[in-house]
Amino acid sequence: MTARLEFRRPRLADAPALFAFMGDAEAMRWTHVQASVRDLRRYLAAHACQARKIGFGPWTVIEAASGRIVGFGGLYDDPFDPGWGLEVAYFFAPEVWGRGYASELVQASLAAARAGGAPLLTAFAHPQNPASRRVLEKAGFRREGFVPEMERDVFRLGLG
Fold it and tell me: Using an 8 Å Cβ cutoff, are 132 and 93 in contact?
């Protein structure tokens, strides 16, 4: 939780509100677009299962002032693309872009990772998404290279 944002474990009932932006091709142009509310529910369920296994999972992000769901993200070991370790990711509704919410979510994620004893975090950003790259760099992540099959730069941050 921050002064402006609340974080909670996702619920299947969050799917329609999350789909409003996670299913929007323009909003998600730098990452994966959810094809349907049903697919998004499967996505949430898979992350919930993974969170039970590893102790970390993404959050539904709620804007404290309005009570609206405005984002999704946090820490996870991606059940759909395993092998990268613990990741930080964030997805926000376009109407809240530019407010610093991604940076707040990343800082909360770093605090949770440190409290949980995670030694290293990974994150990804598309080379043509300077806002996302700035969020990661401001948090201390360093670019380690480009992953062609993902069309994204990989960033890492050691917490030890």
Answer: no
100: left (phi over 0), alpha (psi -120 to 50) or beta: left
The 10s digit of each residue's pLDDT in 8-42 is 999 999 999 999 999 999 999 999 899 999 999 99
Class of domain 5-158: alpha beta
Q: Taking the mean position of all CA atoms in its chain, how far away is CA 151?
A: 17
What ranges do the domains of the chain cover? 5-158
Angstrom distance (rounded) from CA 48 to CA 8: 12
Looking at the whole model, is its pTM more than 0.85?
A: yes
- How far, in Å, CA of 98 to CA of 114, rounded? 26
Kindly provide the residue ranges of all beta strands, DSSP E only, lying in 77-129, ordered along the sequence.
Answer: 87-92, 120-125
- Distance (Å, rounded) from C-alpha 140 to C-alpha 27? 25
Residues 149 and 142: their CA atoms lie apart, in Å, by 20
The token pair that represents 59 in the structure block: 């959050």
Q: What is the DSSP string of 58-89?
A: EEEEEETTT--EEEEEEEE--TTS-SS-SEEE
**What region, left, alpha or beta, does residue 90 occupy, with left being phi > 0 and alpha being psi -120 to 50 degrees?**
beta
